[in-house]
Amino acid sequence: MSATFSAQDPRALAEAPPMLSLRGVTKSFGAVEVLRDVDLDVRYGRVTALVGDNGAGKSTVIKAIAGIYTFDGGDYRFEGEPVNVTNPKQANAMGIEVVYQDLALCDNLDIVDNLFLGREITSNGLLDDETMEKRARETLASLSVRTVSSVRQKVASLSGGQRQTVAIARSVLWNSKLVILDEPTAALGVAQTEQVLKLVRQLADNGLAVILISHNMNDVLAVADDIAVLYLGRLATQIDAKSVSHAEIVQLITSGRLDVDSARATTTISTGERSGSESTDQGAI
Amino acid sequence: MSTVTGRDLPGLADAPDKRATTALSDYLAKVRGGDVGALPAVLGLIVLALVFTGLRSDTFPTTFNFANLINQGAGVIVIAMGLVFVLLLGEIDLSAGFTAGTAGAVLGVAVTNHGMPWWIGVIVCLASGALIGLVIGLLVARLGIPSFVVTLALFLALQGVLLQIIGEGGQISISNPTLLAVMNSNLALWQGWVLYVLVVVGFGAVSYRRMAKRRAKGLHAERFSVWGFKFCTLVVLLGIVTFLLSRERSVNVEATSIMGVPMVVPVLILLLVGLTILLNRTAFGRHVYAVGGNAEAARRAGINVANIRLICFIICSTMAAVAGILIGSRDNGVTPNTGGNQTLLYAVGAAVIGGTSLFGGKGRPVDAIVGGLVVAIIANGMALLNQPAGVVYVVTGLVLLVAASVDALSRRRAAATGRF
Ligand SMILES: Nc1ncnc2c1ncn2[C@@H]1O[C@H](COP(=O)(O)OP(=O)(O)OP(=O)(O)O)[C@@H](O)[C@H]1O
Ligand SMILES: [Mg+2]
């Protein structure tokens, strides 16, 4: 998270060509068509929230962006160049970092080992554990992590929030350009949620592009600049976060359309808001 | 937050220097939390040694028997060292025993039947082991067949190969003096003491440098007194061992004199150090643990999981080939039964008794040595008690079950307390 990006005019950032853009991408698992014709633009210095109901295809989109899967068809451009990302290492090399919904940590390794997994620092072919530990401590300190008693603790012994912190710290250890977070606050308490959201905002303010997946509309409205709504594997819309209300996003998520009248009608109801995990009850659609 | 500050936060700062008593209570907490390491095996070693000493005080606690024990255990220990790599992945290699036999037969054919120099024989032998590992690895890592099935098939197939090479009831004798020396000769007394000094100073220097380096970087480091205690323990223990092995242990001193550290000991030390560095100090080793702990996480971290699997199976089979050389040297030849019978079970038992988990993600090469010595003591002591083979098998089987139970229980305990 070194300050690679100087403070830039937010308007210039918003109008600059997107750092990542998807056009008409598709993805199927066997006969199941999970993504149909999805368009997405992600810009430097902005948090792009990716929302949608359970099974809408959010995780699939980001896994394909990060090279875990590959898109079956469509156009994937990174910094204006068409790219074909086929493995996670390639995505890492391009500057893409992902914090997964199902935390990809190894329980039998400690915090430092997990932070540097796959990109260990070596000298003369041997692991440089001291340098890695020092950098790990510095990074955690810079994120104001106070809850971890030792960076040599096995990850198995950490709480959900601590594990999430480790996962996020992992993405900022490197000079990344795009950080993707899949429901980073789903398992967190109030204080840690706030901490993580602050961190997400900070990443974007430093000039990074951020994709945030969340079911919690309060979180989304708190940090997002753009909101992209997926509905049954299709992109319903991508809009500026300032131009939509809580109720309108909910309607987009549940019906894939924005019917002006009913949106206004639901405004009153939806003040009893959907909080993160409760969104599952919309699964009937 | 854009710049990394070096400041230590209260909760994050490990005390850079812990009191010796804290180190002890930390260790006890670790054990209570299910992270028992080699502790059960070491305790087992002591108890077994005391029991057999009590039962056969005339023959068991002799230096002759002690040296004999090391030679008896060497083959199993080396196979177990290789098995640690596949066990770390949560896989198994049931064919390792017959891989040892087959590679040993290849060595015999090369050196005895074709008159090649011993070192070419060794290369061919190791290559045949690596080839077997490559085949297993490809079938498991690329085709995705469970290793249990692949190696069970190879267990049978290699037995057949061994039989074909040697012939029913046959034997390939090994008479090359260099090869025989590995298991049948001892270091000169001075060489034994040089080895002792090398090991002790090497351990001391490496661990001291590590401690100093950590302290210099302001990281939590072992307290000097704790390091000193460990170092002195090693100096005394290995000193006693070297002293005992340096005494005359021939039953008939007029006929022959037997003394000195067995030649196989430096071989075992070399393998132990090499494999430990590979697992603990290289990125490859770290990736092996990662794949064993969470293969999906490893894959997402950009680790080539299939390659790691492949290499681990190759290492395992190559180590089995090394064991094949040792067993061939000890038995002065190879028969269709070399590496058969209880060899594999003893090797798996050695690794598990030493503290390597059958569930993957946890284990060290040194486990193979500690566990291998436990297995060797049981076999050796029971033989001195003139117990029939049947009883020895039953007892060893029970010990393996106990070790597996300790593994499973400590794992459950670890899951409950959040330690791995
Ligand atoms: N590997 C796979 N094989 C087959 N189907 C899959 C696979 N991964 C996802 N799917 C299906 O694709 C659809 C989209 O899944 P995805 O995980 O992308 O949804 P999501 O939007 O992330 O949902 P959630 O909010 O629950 O995380 C689901 O119907 C899911 O069952
Ligand atoms: Mg998801």
TrEMBL record, chain A:
Transmembrane segments: none annotated. Keywords: ATP-binding, Nucleotide-binding. GO terms for molecular function: ATP binding; ATP hydrolysis activity. CDD domains: ABC_Carb_Monos_I (cd03216). This is Unannotated protein. InterPro entries: AAA+_ATPase, ABC_carbohydrate_import_ATPase, ABC_transporter-like_ATP-bd, P-loop_NTPase. Residues 264-285 are annotated as: Disordered. Residues 20-257 form the ABC transporter domain. The keyword Flavoprotein does not apply. The keyword Transport does not apply.
UniProtKB/TrEMBL annotation, chain B:
GO terms for cellular component: plasma membrane. CDD domains: TM_PBP1_transp_AraH_like. It is found in: Cell membrane. The keyword Membrane applies. Keywords: Cell inner membrane, Cell membrane, Membrane, Sugar transport, Transmembrane, Transmembrane helix, Transport. The chain crosses the membrane at residues 36-57, 69-89, 118-141, 148-167, 187-206, 227-246, 258-279, 308-328, 343-361, 368-385, 391-410. The keyword Metal-binding does not apply. This is Unannotated protein. The lineage of its organism: unclassified sequences, metagenomes, ecological metagenomes.
